[in-house]
Design goal:
The chain is an alpha/beta fold. 35% of the residues lie in helices and 16% in strands. The longest helix is centred in the first third of the chain and has 20 residues.
Length: 308
């Protein structure tokens, strides 16, 4: 029996719009645990974490805000990610804004390194989150995790020390459609696999995802999936502070999660950027639960009809 551990990270200091701190409890209220248990998954809920008290200096970029809070969350998440993975269970991180991936990915990367295997990342997001502390103009640190965990410069002395950087070639991004100029420069310097929405419109989601999963399987790697609400079309998932038109459809999103289930490669999951304050009768939270159930084995024939 598969055993998942729910880990709440009610963090919204990495974003500019308050509300993501309610995300973990909204996902729980939408019924994530019973949905997984109906699929035969054993579920443990650790409740919501708290950030570790930490003192860091001020970066040269005056736009950066709430740095100590974000770093404190990263330290807590890094430790619990590693501990849960070490126990043989699958961590599911309930966000909270996307800065939680600073810690969740770092912890999983440590576990992968100790197993002498490669860590792969599937980044489902409208944004590449490739800013550094120097390049961000908003100062919102939810835009920095990928730059950090792939070893870009400028984080030393501020973010947790990165013992095990992710090879950019092991990162696959899908759904990208909002990229700042500084991020384009950094992406061009890497071997990162980026499928923007034009590429998805032209080629669909199945072909590039299947190719990436074949690479993970060939390397016997472990796969962390990070799902941002803004990956989805705002019409089906309005509860996010960074809506970008033209996202993944309901059908595309479920296909991706069902293919991930079929692969058997996913070892950890982020569900991030849910802002219940912006939701419509819980529809986005319900969709996240539905997508997570697809990852854990629910198929179209098993999916209940949602009442309006």
């Amino acid at each position: 029996m598969r055993h998942c551990v729910l880990i709440g990270a009610p963090i919204d200091q990495g974003a500019s719009r308050a509300g993501c701190l309610m995300g973990p409890d909204a996902i729980r209220t939408a019924g994530l645990q019973p949905a997984l248990e109906e699929l035969g998954v054993e579920v443990t809920d650790l409740g919501n974490l708290t950030p570790r008290p930490i003192s860091v200096g001020s970066p040269s970029n005056p736009c950066v805000h709430d740095l100590e809070d974000v770093v404190g969350w990263a330290l807590s998440l890094k430790d619990v990610a590693y501990e849960v993975a070490l126990s043989g269970r699958m961590p599911i991180f309930l966000g909270g804004d996307h800065s939680l991936s600073i810690g969740s990915v770092a912890g999983m990367a440590r576990f992968a390194a100790e197993r002498q295997t490669q860590q792969f990342i599937l980044w489902l997001d409208a944004h590449p989150d490739m800013h550094t502390l120097e390049t961000t103009k908003s100062g919102n640190l939810h835009g920095t995790p990928v730059a950090y965990f792939t070893g870009r410069t400028g984080f030393d002395g501020y973010y947790p020390r990165l013992e095990h950087a992710i090879d950019p070639a092991n990162v696959c991004m899908m759904g990208i459609r909002s990229v700042d100029p500084a991020e384009k420069v950094l992406i061009a310097q890497t071997a990162m696999e980026v499928h923007d929405m034009r590429a998805i419109d032209e080629n669909g989601v199945a072909k590039p995802l299947r190719s990436f999963l074949n690479r993970v399987k060939a390397e016997r790697g472990q796969l962390h999936v990070s799902l941002d609400v803004d990956f989805l079309e705002p019409g089906i998932a309005p509860a996010v502070g960074t809506t970008v038109p033209g996202g993944a459809t309901f059908r595309e999103a479920h296909l991706i999660l069902e293919m991930l289930c079929d692969s058997g490669l996913v070892t950890s999951l982020d569900l991030v950027e849910l802002n219940p304050f912006l939701d419509e009768r819980g529809r986005t939270a319900n969709l996240l639960v539905d997508l997570c159930a697809s990852l854990m084995g629910r198929t179209v024939l098993d999916r209940p009809t949602q009442s309006l």
